[in-house]
Amino acid sequence: MKNRSVVYLMVILVASIFTLWGCPKSADTTAVPEAPTAPTAAPEPVEDTPVERAAPVRDKLEAVYFDFDQSFIRSDAKSAIKENAEWLKANPKADIRIEGNCDERGTIEYNQALGQRRAQAAKKYLTDLGISGGRISLISYGKEKPVCKQSNEDCWQENRRGDFAVVK
Fold first, then answer.
1. What is the average per-residue pLDDT within 128-150?
2. Which contiguous run of DSSP H or E holds residue 96?
């Protein structure tokens, strides 16, 4: 009887080891968006409509800046978002990504969440101005992409921002 208990115990132990060994390791997560894949077919010719021809050529859209620990759109940022909305209306085939950023203060987790709230606030303002939410993707970089690396208020203000990147 005792030998049978030892055998059962050994079988359970071996089965447990194989089960744990086969479990997936923790997933590798990142805040960096995936790079677009290369097209397999030749790209379609771009139609040059009068609206697209009238749109100003811009290397990048205007960034918006936030107050410390806040995600609401400041009055001075509204004009930048309105300019971005006008450009998007003039370029209906363009899609954008709003990238939420924070200064160096706070934990990684907190700043990731705050950056996401900032990107969402900017997206809501754009959709309220008539831009389709389907054209806008969001990402939070938290404090991982500072534009200024000094530890002072002027520098921190530059890092508390939402960047607008044209992705298509």
1. 95
2. strand 96-101
Please write down the HEC assignment for all residues of 52-89.
HHHCCCCCCCCCEECCCCCCCCCHHHHHHHHHHHHHHH
**Contact (CB, 8 A) for 141 and 31:** yes
Distance CA 112, CA 118 (A): 10
Measured torsion, CA atoms of residues 112, 113, 114, 120, in degrees rounded to the nearest 10: 110
Two structure tokens written together for 140: 């939070």
What gap in Å lies between CA 98 and CA 125, rounded to an integer?
12
Domains in the chain (CATH in brackets) are 57-166 (3.30.1330.60)
Determine how many CB atoms are found less than 10 A away from the CB of residue 77: 21
- What confidence tens digit (pLDDT) does each residue in 52-110 have? 433 444 457 999 999 999 999 999 999 999 999 999 999 999 999 999 999 999 999 99
- The two three-digit tokens of residue 123, written as one number: 């997206």
- Kindly state the DSSP code that residue 102 receives in the 8-state scheme: -
15 vs 144, more confident? 144
Q: Which residue has the tokens 């002072």?
A: 152
